């Protein structure tokens, strides 16, 4: 089965991809500092602050001293944002998606269309990478064959 065939199959919803293994969360905790979230997600504290500033992150609660306190729900959202980043979706489109989510259920058709367009781009990139992999495998095979052939000398 090719990568493209695998992508064309039904896949697990993104929300179901977020597991305890993805975010090693202590039992019973639902408040995390920015440094803990940075460690969980692999995103820098600067990136997390920027995401909040541009509207990609929903409202993040603050402690009485003004420090950000992220919730498990925030971690789930950031895991999804991380997947969107991997697709190559432009940040502006991610912000648009976040705004649509905040607007509620009535925006589901627009959200679906945005994700479908991104999926189409991903499938195309996978096909391009599959073609590239085929070329690389062929080229590697020619070198493997050259290593097995007896040496020819011009003597």
From TrEMBL:
<dbReference type="GO" id="GO:0003677">
    <property type="term" value="F:DNA binding"/>
</dbReference>
<dbReference type="InterPro" id="IPR009061">
    <property type="entry name" value="DNA-bd_dom_put_sf"/>
</dbReference>
<dbReference type="Pfam" id="PF13411">
    <property type="entry name" value="MerR_1"/>
</dbReference>
<keyword id="KW-0238">DNA-binding</keyword>
<protein>
    <submittedName>
        <fullName>DNA-binding transcriptional regulator, MerR family</fullName>
    </submittedName>
</protein>
<dbReference type="GO" id="GO:0003700">
    <property type="term" value="F:DNA-binding transcription factor activity"/>
</dbReference>
<feature type="domain" description="HTH merR-type">
    <location>
        <begin position="31"/>
        <end position="100"/>
    </location>
</feature>
<dbReference type="InterPro" id="IPR047057">
    <property type="entry name" value="MerR_fam"/>
</dbReference>
<dbReference type="InterPro" id="IPR000551">
    <property type="entry name" value="MerR-type_HTH_dom"/>
</dbReference>
């Amino acid at each position: 089965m090719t990568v493209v065939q695998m992508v064309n199959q039904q896949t697990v919803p993104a929300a179901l991809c977020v597991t305890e293994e993805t975010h090693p969360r202590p039992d019973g905790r639902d408040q995390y500092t920015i440094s803990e979230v940075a460690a969980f997600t692999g995103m820098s504290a600067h990136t997390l602050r920027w995401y909040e500033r541009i509207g990609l992150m929903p409202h993040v609660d603050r402690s009485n001293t003004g420090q950000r306190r992220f919730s498990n729900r925030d971690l789930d959202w950031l895991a999804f944002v991380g997947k969107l980043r991997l697709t190559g979706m432009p940040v502006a489109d991610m912000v648009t998606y976040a705004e649509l989510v905040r607007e509620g259920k009535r925006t589901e058709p627009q959200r679906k269309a945005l994700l479908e367009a991104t999926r189409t781009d991903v499938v195309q990139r996978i096909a391009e990478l599959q073609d590239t992999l085929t070329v690389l495998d062929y080229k590697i095979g020619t070198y493997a064959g050259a290593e097995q052939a007896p040496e020819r000398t011009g003597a």
